[in-house]
Amino acid sequence: MLSRKNRLLLLKGLSLFSIIRGYNILVIALAQYLASIYILAPDLPLREVVLDLNLFVIVFASALVIAAGYIINSFYDSEKDLINRPRKSMLDRLVSQRTKLSAYFVLNFLSVLLASYVSFRATLFFSAYIFGIWIYSHKLKRIPMLGNIVSATLAITPFFAVFVYYKNFETVIFVHAIYLFLLILVRELIKDMENMAGDLAQGYRTIPLLYGTNVSKILASILVLLTLLPALLLIYSFDVGIMYLYFFGSIFFLIGFLALLWKSNSKKHYIWLHNILKFIIVAGVFSILLIDVDLVLNRILS
Q1: Which of 94, 184, 232, 250 would you call most buried, defined as having the most Cβ atoms within 10 angstroms of its Cβ?
Q2: Side-chain-facing half-sphere of 131: CA atoms under 13 Å
Q3: pLDDT of 173-196, one tens digit each?
């Protein structure tokens, strides 16, 4: 049996993991590696990419910055989260605000230190990324639509880190990025509808609160229809292996999403919509493997 002190330490560890959303960070790190192997550097040997120390440092530094970003977000949104996510918020409150700030500065310092190992440009990149997350959490997230756009941009920034590292400027990469950006932007709008109670209580100015949920649904619908364009381009205009099956599936799910969106009128419904988008995004990460199935099979059989 664990002692009371050890149980408290375990709970605080779980609380910190909850605050930094460790599961999201693991998925992003995996996505960075898969994107590097199958999209950004497909001509390099698998071993060379996986064992590339510079790539590992970039992915690890990205993880630290993202973790710090979740911490500063939790710091600023603690009161709002108590209304929107009471159960999660109670767990998160086991870690004090002072500890959150200390962890935030330590993680950001370590990320910049790691980036300096790769290059001076990497140091500047991660410094700008850290500043972007802070200014978003402190100011920009309260500005309607601009906050959503900045949030979606920050979410795909870790992929630009490896994109810049490999200096691959092929059109297919930008189409993938636009597809992901639009999906995340739709998710941000749904989150605003999901979190209206806490946003209202804390004086946040979001599109659902300023213009109503119908306007938010119209905007989300337009973005979903725009998302179909890069999905169709990736199916018919680029060689994505049998990942085209994922894009066909995502189109099916997005059409279903639109039908459900216009029937939704409660927080429970918006949570379902949010989870559908999360499923599409996470499924997309694992579907990168479908770009070159032969490579996957060869590694399994070898």
Answers
A1: 250
A2: 6
A3: 899 999 999 999 999 999 999 988
